[in-house]
Amino acid sequence: MAVVIRSKDAGINRLTFDIVFNSAADYELALRSNVFHKAHVAELLQLAPERVVGSFFVDTCNAIKITIDRPNISASPDERDVFGAQQQSRIEALVIPVHANCPARASTL
């Protein structure tokens, strides 16, 4: 569904994730799934909910941006990814549920 999934540095104490979808239809499906809700993002990234700054929706380019507080301050001795460019693997593995636009029908058997 996405053509770009990346993470990057957003200052010394924040990371941002960009998810750019292939089409407006895929973007709308992702939005309707509610998987980018703050609580779900926190669970996905294994963070406390208060560490998720927010999920931001950019309709003009079919993109979702997620910003979090960094686990470690950039360039600190325990930071392994100063540029924040290798943090998106959990988002890459995310499965977005796609539900039919019509209600389920009872079997006629």
Compressed to H and E, one letter per element, the order equals: EEHHEEH
- Biggest β-sheet description: 4 strands, antiparallel
Distance between the termini: 36 Å
What ranges have pLDDT less than 50 throughout 5 or more consecutive residues?
none
- The CATH class, by name, is Alpha Beta
* Percent helix range: 10-25%
Mean pLDDT: 85
How is this structure best described in words?
By secondary structure, the protein is an alpha+beta fold. It has a single domain, classed as Gyrase A, domain 2 (2-Layer Sandwich), CATH 3.30.1360. Helix content is 19%, strand content 28%. The protein has three helices and four strands; from the N terminus they run E-E-H-H-E-E-H. The protein has a four-stranded antiparallel β-sheet. The longest helix has 10 residues. 17% of the residues are buried.
Brief summary of the model shown:
With 109 residues, the chain is of the alpha+beta class. It is 19% helix and 28% strand. The longest helix has 10 residues, at 24-33.
